[in-house]
TrEMBL record:
GO terms for cellular component: cytoplasm. This is Methionine gamma-lyase. Keywords: Pyridoxal phosphate. One of its GO terms (molecular function) is pyridoxal phosphate binding. One of its GO terms (biological process) is methionine biosynthetic process. It comes from Cyprideis torosa. Belongs to the trans-sulfuration enzymes family. PANTHER family: CYSTATHIONINE GAMMA-LYASE, TRANS-SULFURATION ENZYME FAMILY MEMBER.
Length: 319
């Protein structure tokens, strides 16, 4: 079913889905590890890529392909690839585009492990990288070299919440699985609930006497509010804020929360909290942390879909 002419919420439910010969109303789950071929010739053609088919689930299966097609249609892309983790996706992008002698430009506030992988593994393969404030387009232009092959961005950045103008950054280019399928159908409802709560939480934090500053794209005080309004259809559910007490206050808060889970993921139904300086970005030197805006008092807070009053009460007692 082609859904690209439908609303986004409708596409979340129907894009990429298929039925089987029995008329399944939802995309079937294929749990087999391998697929049998009808003949030796058929198997040879599938292995050679002459004919569409499946070999191992670790390569693909109909359920995984349905997810990939859903993502491609939602993003109006040519195709999609589903991987087992976010870092697997990041590493795959690096591997697909970069080779020895190539150069990448990225944000100095990029997710810590994304930079660690580049500066350890890929640096050993002869790949160079530069990190700049990508919210400043002139800094990006200055960093681009003749061998630059990739501009890797995160917007909003994790966890500093700095935004990058995607369209303007693009103009610098000289060449111009089942549980996810099921879960994405209610994505619009969950995101709407979480970001509505996030706005209330951000407003609460902004008025707390122990909080130095709060960064959330929906706040009028957000430094890049105009850009957020320009390229974001919603403000998301992640908040970053800094505690006046610095590193010790950040660690103490991690140990004081009761409802929020001390974990490093984001975007789930549960509210999560983490301390970037000692967790996700601990692999970076203190100098790089400071250059990236990762202070000891920085807290990243991913708002879930619990009652917002309970989330705020938890913050209140933890602070």
């Amino acid at each position: 079913m082609k859904t690209s002419d439908k609303g986004f919420d409708t596409q979340l439910i129907h894009a990429g889905d298929f039925t089987d010969e029995f008329g399944s109303a939802v995309t079937p789950i294929y749990q087999t590890s391998t697929f049998a071929f009808k003949s030796a010739e058929k198997g040879a053609d599938i292995f050679a890529g002459k004919e569409k088919g499946y070999i191992y689930t670790r390569i693909s299966n109909p359920t995984i392909e349905a997810l990939e097609n859903k993502l491609a249609e939602l993003e109006e892309g040519f195709g999609g690839v589903a991987l087992s983790s976010g870092m697997a996706a990041v590493t795959t992008v690096y591997s697909a585009i970069l080779k020895a002698g190539d150069h990448m430009v990225s944000s100095n506030a990029v997710y810590g492990p994304s930079r660690v992988v580049m500066e350890t593994i890929f640096a050993d393969f002869g790949v160079e990288s530069s990190y700049v404030d990508t919210s400043n387009l002139e800094k990006i232009k200055e960093a681009i070299q003749p061998n630059t092959k990739l501009l890797y961005l995160e917007t909003p950045a994790n966890p500093t919440m700095n935004l990058t103008d995607i369209q303007e950054a693009r103009n610098m280019d000289p060449h111009q699985a089942y549980m996810v399928i099921r879960g994405v159908k209610t994505l619009a409802l969950r995101v709407e609930r979480a970001q509505d709560s996030a706005m209330k939480v951000a407003e609460y934090l902004e008025n707390h006497h122990k909080v130095e500053w709060v960064k959330y794209p929906g706040l009028s005080s957000f430094p890049q509010k105009d850009l957020a309004d320009k390229q974001m259809s919603g403000y998301g559910a992640m908040i970053s804020f800094s505690l006046k007490g610095g590193h010790d206050a950040g660690v103490a808060m991690m140990n004081n929360v009761k409802l929020a889970l001390l974990a490093v993921s984001l975007g789930g139904v549960e509210t999560l909290i983490q301390h970037p300086a000692s967790m996700t970005h601990a692999g970076l030197s203190k100098q790089v942390q400071e250059e990236s805006g990762i202070s000891g008092g920085l807290v990243r807070f991913s708002v879930g879909i619990e009652n917002v009053e309970d989330i705020i009460d938890d913050l209140d007692q933890a602070l």
